[in-house]
Amino acid sequence: MGLTSPCVLLLLSALLISGNTQERSKAVVTLHPDLQQIFTGERLTLRCQIQGGENNTEWRYFFKRDDVDIGSSESELKIESVEEFHRGAYTCVGKDTSHEKYSDWSDEVMLTVTDRPQPVLRVSPSWLNPGDSVTLSCEVGDSSTGWSFFFYRAAPSLPDQPYSVELLSDREQTTGNSSTLQLAAPSHTAGYMCRAGRGETVYYSDYSNPQFHWSGDQISSVSLSVSTNRSQHLVSESVSLSCELKGNSTGWTLRRYTGSELYTVCSSVKGSTTGSTCIIRSLNVGHSGVFWCESGSGEYSNAVNITVHGAFKYNVSVRLSSISEGLCICLQIDGGSSQSQSTNLVLDGVQIANQNQAPAGNAPLEHRQGVEAGPSDVTYAQIELKKMKKPKRKTGKQAESEEDTIYSKVAQDLPLVALEQMT
Fold this sequence. Notes:
The chain is mainly beta. It has one helix at residues 6-21, and strands at 26-32, 38-39, 44-51, 59-65, 68-73, 76-79, 88-96, 101-102, 109-111, 113-114, 120-124, 134-139, 148-155, 164-171, 178-183, 190-198, 203-204, 211-213, 222-226, 232-234, 239-245, 252-257, 262-267, 273-274, 277-280, 289-295, 300-309, 315-320, 329-334, 344-347, 350-354, 362-365, 378-381, 404-407, 418-421.
């Protein structure tokens, strides 16, 4: 048996070592766009690349989602419109078509799919003062980035129909998830909406819910009037709200906003109406909110803030020093709570005192002609003083009280007020 040359043995050993240490090709899967969150309806591309191996190798690629084959393709797998069922763990592998060899499988990449976002719009301030500027703030409420923002005027349309939108401004935003727009001194009630978009082929979010700023100033084309001429009401009262339109309008809608929900109270085609008047025959606390009219030609009226109160729980005592013209009455109001409240008292529709004007809840009442009730936080009662005949002086236990008591007649759902005449 012949001996193998030492040089040949060394060469074979080197080849074996080289073959055993050669790294095997490995696949890598990536998502494009490379974003942490993908929303339903967005376009997505999965890209598979092979690391290692020869540059001139022809590869064919295979993809899996949650270990289930989803097909083979070139290096990219495109999803034109992502849906919730696309979520999962994606991997890919490459096949060398020349040598019928496979690369190693890629590591998993998780795809999280979220419903199409609806941004949140905030308007500040919500009630206008003359000369105020208004700030609109639009935010996509998650960790997603790369958005551009679009602000719109929400224009009223035909009665009982959704708002149409008129673009006010678009704000490019390449990072972050919010943007703001400043409006210089608007003077009338108006509504706004916003939405966001991202990507080369723009993917849009849903529109935000409409938000508003309000003004009590009337405009010539459409106005709102309230039959009671006051903003504070009690449950079970009836109120009529009239939308007065001028010009060629195609109808009207009366809206109410509660701070979280927008309602259609009635319109020229819906609800309890007489002409252009909407009638609420029995108020309840749920009717509280901001009311305004909208015309079919795209305009907003003045706004009215209406608050409906349930039964009051105040204990009211009144001491009379005399019953005569110009009398001075002090009310001590106990609301059953230690919390400080700012309350105006209104007699026959006229504001006659403010609780903050006297210490410890004792409010001197002075009837001031021509002073109208304020627009908010008003407690009102219709008080009719009736002097009762002075009873004969009693003796013994019946003489414990030296003061005569006079009772007032108080508006619905308010307790009786005891008026005690001092000697």
